[in-house]
Amino acid sequence: MTPAMLLSDTPRQLAARDHLLLHFARNGSPAPLLVLERGEGPFVFDQDGNRYLDALSSLFCAQLGYSYGEEMGQVAASQLNELAFSTVWGAAHPAAIDLSARLAELLPGDLDHVFFTGGGSESVEAAWKLVKTYHNANGEPQRTKAIARDRAYHGVTLGALSFTGVPGYKEPFGAPAIEVAHVSNTNAFRNQRPGEDEDAFCARLLAEIEEAVQREGPETVAMIIAEPVQNAGGCLVPPRGYWPGLRAIADRHGILLVADEVICGFGRLGEWLGVSRYGALPDLVTTAKGITSAYAPMGAVITNDRVAGPLYDDGRTLMHGITFAGHPLCAAIALRNLEIFEREGVLDNVRTLEPHLQARLDELRALPIVGDVRGAGFFWAIELVKDDENTRLDADEREHLLRRYLPGRLLEAGLIARADDRGDAVLHIAPPLISDREILDLLADRLAEVLTDAGSVLPTRRTIA
Ligand SMILES: Cc1ncc(COP(=O)(O)O)c(C=O)c1O
User: pLDDT per residue over 75-92, tens digit each?
Assistant: First the structure.
């Protein structure tokens, strides 16, 4: 079967339509296919030389932008010449050892033990296995359940999919591998009740989690997993006291607390770990994406002395392993990535410019189509609504605006951002962490143009769609 094609398709676009299955995409769509060929600083360029500000950092990965290719290339060449590959299965190599030691130094508390993976979903699944190993070693094999949050995305491989709280991603694939109770997320814009202040909102959310633990049976719950700021649903920041509250619930019931830092880690919120902003120390963190700034694919779970303890018992085998995890090439690049972060003051850049980015995005609230602007660091979402009453867009409007109008209009404005409705309709904004004030201004100016136009196409959607 041949997918739809356009007369203007180049041979490479045609080849893509014939052979390349795009992830999370309508592969039969006749829309022009964006083919990105080159990157420079925070910009990417398509095959016609059009320049786009990558305001999504290639799915929250390109923390350093695209101009470190030469330096990373030298790191890669020298590692490949020295030792192209070796596993971390029962043996080790210098790059993985040095990276694990560096991560232990940089991350807070006793998050000192690193299990490498190939990406975010693998990190989430490995975290589950570490958690289970810990409970089994402590004579509690009955802890087989987890708590996660509605709409949260924790990956789509079959184990990680259990924790993901987006029904449409799960339903086609049958019963989840792991029993997970999903609880409310921290969407204050939609769910904070009139007259309820931040503290009361937080207390209500935590009470719901406590109830879920009681309902499931506290002795059966192995872990609670949450992102510091939840991406799906649109940058759902936690209310004050939420993370210490999660920590307290976990401690009360012998449950392990996992921060999924796949997006929030490595500078997205201006810290090595996003959760550091919210006053709690988890037992495990899952990471990927920014750990290499996407100059190579890698993930890692980092855990504390308590969870790692049983793994050092004489005679115990860690029953998990992934061939390419801790690949020397990726480990060497991750190490250099961390070095560049420090050399270039990347965390400071995010901390210094966060208020400016927030102020510029807040200006968009004046547009009737903008219901909310929320986020932290260089991680923001703009919720799109029908009117000044913040009425939700209906299914037709979301289809028209998010899938047909905005993708093309954003590109026309020279921007890559993501329109998404896994929860309510939002536009995700996450520029590379090396972006300066001028780049952030360019982003905000272009967004203002696009959203002004988007507001005016809504009422006429039926004739345009
Ligand atoms: C919070 C979170 N966890 C896990 C994942 C899965 O990561 P990957 O796509 O690398 O498997 C993602 C991916 O975006 C994520 O955002």
Answer: 999 999 999 999 999 999
